[in-house]
Amino acid sequence: MNIGWVSRREPLPAQIRELKRLYPNARLIRIGKSFQSGGEVLLELQRRRCRAAVIILPKSLIARILELDPTFEILYPVMQVIHKNCEGERCCEFDPETDSILHTGRLVTHVRFSRFEQIRDIEVVGAEI
Ligand SMILES: [Zn+2]
Q: Which residues are close to ligand 1, an ion, with C-beta < 5 A?
């Protein structure tokens, strides 16, 4: 079987190892292009014969994929925050096997891969108005 990797980021070595452990006979198919809709993502994954995929895209697109095919296995990497505003790639605790540096404006967040989880549902959290 094939596992899709839908993200503009490359998978970390630790993420590749974990996917091999979870799906020993699967081939990882990287899909780095951008999508307009959830339907388009699902179509591409079906075309590439993926039965599951790690999808790092806006929640609205992921919600739409689940709506179209509730049985599709969507995984996301759980990342633990190590530091905020450290030296990034030059941080003394930075491990290229497991870590990523996220840049949001001028904010630098050093995160570490912990595990994959399957997305079952995406909820809208309401507040009284
Ligand atoms: Zn750091």
A: 83, 86, 91, 110
Q: How are strands ordered across the β-sheet holding 2-6?
A: 27-31, 2-6, 50-55, 73-84, 107-118, 99-104
Distance between terminal CA atoms of the chain?
Answer: 47
State the distance from the centre of ligand 1 to the C-alpha of 16, rounded, in angstroms.
Answer: 22
Distance CA 100, CA 13 (A): 11
pLDDT of residue 122: 87
**What's the 90 CA to ligand 1 centre distance in angstroms?**
8
Domains and CATH numbers, the chain: 2-118 (3.40.50)
pTM for the model: 0.89
